[in-house]
Design a protein that fits this description.
single chain; alpha+beta; Rossmann fold; 23% helix; binds S-adenosylmethionine
Length: 416
């Protein structure tokens, strides 16, 4: 295949270097940086990086030996200022596409080893088991032995996890392992495998788990082992995670987001003493808010709400937390139901909160706080709120997904 020499002009939304081919069409070159001259092979608008001829002064050595192959990270090869500025710019551009011009605060930085929740894949080869992430744009697994993003206790457990999952794998299936680092040890959930129905298989799993600092093991929805409670905490308030339940990926960033939100909330006036937490999960924000507010937590996941109920029982000196199980996409809280709150938080899934936001836009709640892992759906929802009379007062990106192209954000809206 022909070699092309290209000049990289910018860093695209997927973290790839973007150049223009001799025919004048854009070419996306993974692992290339703006300003670099590179040799590539071009296939269907994508350039495979062969050599960096003139490197950028922003290029650095990646922290992970798997980086060139592993699809888990996209941005380890550039200096922090460029990385942080790129994440901010991505957010600003996504908002600008909806006609929203907002000052984006500096990125709240993440740190190495801060990710407490990993979703890994596992397959069996002739001789061994591979555990890791898929290669970039591929279904081929990279067998990882290190990962600077993950909490060290998860990385240390990789050899033992390989042994544990082995009897559950056939030569064909790709198992999914969700591993959460908790105060009581690792909470491991193995899915996409046959249930461990036979007593002999369960005994084997118990034996193999001896080499792990394990709190709980769940296989195909069936809890096999619970050595300890998988305790987690929200700004110091204790909770017990249900198997595979949603949690912010990093405890450090979670607590920084809670601190930021509490600061925003305390800066607002709260004459009614009431807060609403929509898409509450197991109470990441409801519980810290309940130190000062009566809270209504709304969520559709029964297991999450059960965990929240349990966490309320574990915490002392909280104001009342009321729980409402509701599918907010089908039946959002109406403008009528939204009366009498000082502040409403909403932290929807990636798809956003379109139906709920349409009702919030009609409400008179003085302060709204959005938490989002998707700038695109956030920008769409922000447009609805702004058209309904809210003003986007502040917007802060958090680097929850270190070295990836993803951005977590907290936005504050006030009624004009
Ligand atoms: C991004 S998580 C946030 C959870 C929580 N705020 C936290 O920080 O841990 C989104 C939550 O929304 C819930 N959810 C998703 N779709 C929903 C819907 N249509 N109605 C109610 N809750 C929903 C999920 O179960 C999940 O707990």
């Amino acid at each position: 295949m022909a070699e092309n020499i290209l000049q990289i002009q910018s860093l695209g939304a997927g973290g790839d270097g973007v150049a223009t081919s001799p025919e004048g069409v854009p070419v996306f070159v993974p692992l290339a940086l703006p300003g670099e001259r590179v040799a590539v092979e071009i296939t269907d608008g994508r350039g495979k990086l062969l050599r960096v001829i003139e490197p950028s002064s922003d290029r650095i050595k990646p922290v992970c030996a798997h980086f060139a192959q592993c699809g888990g990270c996209a941005l380890q090869h550039l200096r922090a200022p460029l990385y942080e500025d790129w994440k901010r710019q991505q957010l600003a551009q996504t908002l600008a596409a909806r006609g929203l011009k907002t000052q984006v605060s500096p990125l709240v930085a993440g740190t190495i080893g801060m990710r407490r929740r990993a979703v890994l894949s596992a397959t069996r080869t002739k001789k061994s088991v591979m555990i890791g992430y898929f290669k970039r744009s591929s279904h081929e697994l990279v067998d990882i032995h290190q990962c600077p993003v993950l909490s060290p206790d998860i990385v240390e457990a990789l050899p033992a996890l390989r042994k544990l999952v082995r009897p559950l794998l056939s030569r064909k299936n790709v198992a999914r392992l969700s591993v959460l680092s908790t105060k009581g040890g690792l909470d491991v959930v193995i899915d996409k495998v046959e249930p461990a129905a036979e007593a002999s298989m369960r005994i084997k799993l118990v034996e193999l788990s001896a080499g792990l600092s394990l709190a709980r093991l769940t296989v195909a929805g069936d809890m096999i082992i619970e050595k300890d409670r998988p305790y987690i905490s929200f700004d110091g308030l204790k909770a017990i995670s249900p198997p595979g339940g949603f949690l912010q990926a990093s405890q450090i960033i979670q607590d920084k987001m809670i601190a930021h939100i509490l600061e925003l909330v305390s800066a607002g006036k709260a004459p009614k003493g009431r807060a609403l937490d929509l898409y509450s999960g197991m109470g990441t924000f409801s519980l810290p808010l309940a130190r000062n507010f009566k809270v209504l937590a709304v969520e559709y996941d029964k297991a999450a709400l059960k965990a929240l109920q349990q966490a309320i029982g574990l915490s002392k000196r909280l104001k009342p937390v009321e729980i409402l199980e509701r599918d907010l996409a089908i039946m959002p809280l109406s403008a009528l139901e939204l009366r009498d709150y000082d502040v409403a938080l909403f932290d929807p899934p990636r798809s956003g909160a379109r139906a709920q936001v349409a009702e919030l836009a009609k409400s008179d709640i003085p302060q709204l706080i959005a938490i989002s892992c998707s700038p695109a759906s956030f920008a769409r929802d922000a447009r609805i709120l702004i058209d309904g009379g809210y003003q986007l007062k502040s917007l802060t990106p958090f680097d929850q997904f270190l070295f990836s192209t993803h951005v977590e954000l907290v936005g504050e809206f006030v009624k004009k």
